[in-house]
Write a structure and sequence with these properties.
The chain is mostly helical and 84 residues long. It is built from 4 helices and no strands. The longest helix is centred in the last third of the chain and has 26 residues.
Length: 84
């Protein structure tokens, strides 16, 4: 859960970051979500990572709210199952 929260915090404003920061963060989120059992969030992270690397930044920006919502749902599920 901590990794997911850290990646989520790093995502804020990442679409406008120089270099490959956004791509790296999306890649990290994909792994963290998949490790926590969040297939939907992991799949969306992968789609947005691909879009970022293909230069479709507006698509990434539009997809971030949905990704954040899915991460929030995953965090709630993890808390519920772990008793945290």
């Amino acid at each position: 859960l901590k990794t997911i929260q850290e990646q989520k915090a790093a995502l804020a404003g990442a679409a406008d970051s120089p270099g490959d920061t956004c791509g790296q963060i999306l890649h990290g989120i994909k792994g963290a979500c998949l490790n926590a059992g969040g297939r939907r969030a992991g799949a969306l992270s992968a789609e947005l990572e691909d879009a970022y690397h293909e230069g479709r930044i507006d698509e990434v920006r539009k997809g971030l709210p949905e990704l954040l919502a899915q991460i929030g749902q995953l965090e709630a599920e993890v808390r519920k199952t772990s008793g945290a």
